[in-house]
């Protein structure tokens, strides 16, 4: 059974494992821990109690920012990213947000297509925003009015 539930602190190690396997520039444990405060809304996607993906977002006034959305590499291609993104948009609306922002690597065609399919539009570019072990990459800034 597929479920999306609030992230619990005890799930951080599972999230770190997924992050290390899937991300271009993986977050540190300290960075994840800093997102456990009340202004963030963080959720995990579980398939039969297996943690398969997650997102971390922050609300400031009437805007939300998606900081991280990741699906485990062995679970990609099953629509889990789309489900998480739809959940994020629903949560943002329920919290009174009118705008959602995100950044995505310029070369991440699959994520860009996912975001565009959900109604996000290109708003700008941040040069050399992502710093990974294989170099730097620009970020596309995308937004959506709710």
TrEMBL record:
GO terms for molecular function: protein-N-terminal-alanine acetyltransferase activity. Gene3D superfamilies: 3.40.630.30. It is an enzyme of class 2 (transferase). Acetyl-CoA binds at residue 108. It is found in: Cytoplasm. Residues 2-146 form the N-acetyltransferase domain. Its EC number is 2.3.1.266. The keyword Repeat does not apply. GO terms for cellular component: ribosome. The active site is at residues 103, 115. Its main location: cytoplasm. Keywords: Acyltransferase, Cytoplasm, Ribonucleoprotein, Ribosomal protein, Transferase. It catalyses: N-terminal L-alanyl-[ribosomal protein bS18] + acetyl-CoA = N-terminal N(alpha)-acetyl-L-alanyl-[ribosomal protein bS18] + CoA + H(+). PANTHER family: ACETYLTRANSFERASE, PEPTIDYL-LYSINE N-ACETYLTRANSFERASE YIAC. Belongs to the acetyltransferase family. RimI subfamily. Acetylates the N-terminal alanine of ribosomal protein bS18. This is [Ribosomal protein bS18]-alanine N-acetyltransferase.
